[in-house]
Amino acid sequence: MAKKKVKDVLKDKSVIASKVKISSAVQEKSKPKKIKQKVYEKELKRLQIELVKLQEWVKHEGLRVVVVFEGRDAAGKGGAIQRIAECLNPRVCRIAALGKPTEREKTQWYFQRYVAHLPAAGEIVLFDRSWYNRTGVERVMGFCTHEQYVEFLRSCPEFEHMLQRSGIILIKYWFSVSDEEQERRFQKRIENRTKRWKLSPMDLESRARWVEYSKAKDDMFAATDTTLSPWYVVEADDKKSARLNCINHLLSMIPYEDLTPDPIELPPRQKAMDYIRPPMCMQKFVPKKY
């Protein structure tokens, strides 16, 4: 009888061990695999070529495009914006990253300073944070009154629908990052002297008020994730995948045709004629230190 019990115990232990193995294997499988650098660079180059095609179409058709980027601090919004803008004409694609409002701006209609940055025909504007500051940092940190916050939630959908009725294409992205990954990125910024400027007092406070910011985001989605102006969530624990997914989705949101200019033939250089270059000693040159 005792032997049988021992066998049963061993059998139970082996079953438990196998279940633990299966569950750990499932967890490992559920973790997103990080994209390889070569694959990332190849795909990014392909998508950036498509972005240039989109740019030419926006110019040709006189479209007005607004893309809003919001999300947690260190979620990777800036990196995604940079990859979108770096291959485009800055006269067509602009980045709007507004600082804190001046005393005069604080007395204006809330949306007024953002309206000044909206695109004209043939332009794309990428908002690195936007009017949604009111539902995030302003609400959590107490920079606005409860009445101002409630009024924003009521007015924002109307404001965005008004923009869309005027012909503006509005696309909104929320970059989502886990608390563990945000912590890792914060530590990385502290270690890197060239990135410490990215950690503002507000960023540090957002870390201390993680739950409050989470609740604020949920309330914001409940009020402003509308049928006409939905939020698109970008899972951003893997920065490279997040950039590719965001750009790919952005391209899918605006139908465009390939209007890439044909290859250009350079004209022959003008001959010297009677031109004589002034003496080199008359010019000031940058010292050749490297």
Structure explained in plain terms:
This protein is an alpha/beta fold and 290 residues long. The chain contains eleven helices and five strands; from the N terminus they run H-H-E-H-E-H-H-E-H-H-E-H-H-H-E-H. It has helices spanning 2-30, 37-61, 77-85, 103-106, 112-115, 137-141, 146-165, 179-191, 201-208, 210-224, 239-253, and strands at residues 64-71, 93-96, 123-128, 168-176, 231-235. A five-stranded parallel β-sheet has the order 2-3-1-4-5, with helices on both faces. Helix 3 (77-85) packs across helix 11. The longest helix is centred in the first third of the chain and has 29 residues, at 2-30. The protein starts with a helix and ends in a 37-residue tail after the last helix. The model is unreliable at 19-30 (pLDDT under 50).
Shape: globular
Tell me about the largest β-sheet: 5 strands, parallel
**Average predicted local confidence, pLDDT:** 89
| Low-confidence runs | 19-30
Give the end-to-end Cα distance, rounded to a whole number of Å.
85 Å
Radius of gyration: 26 Å
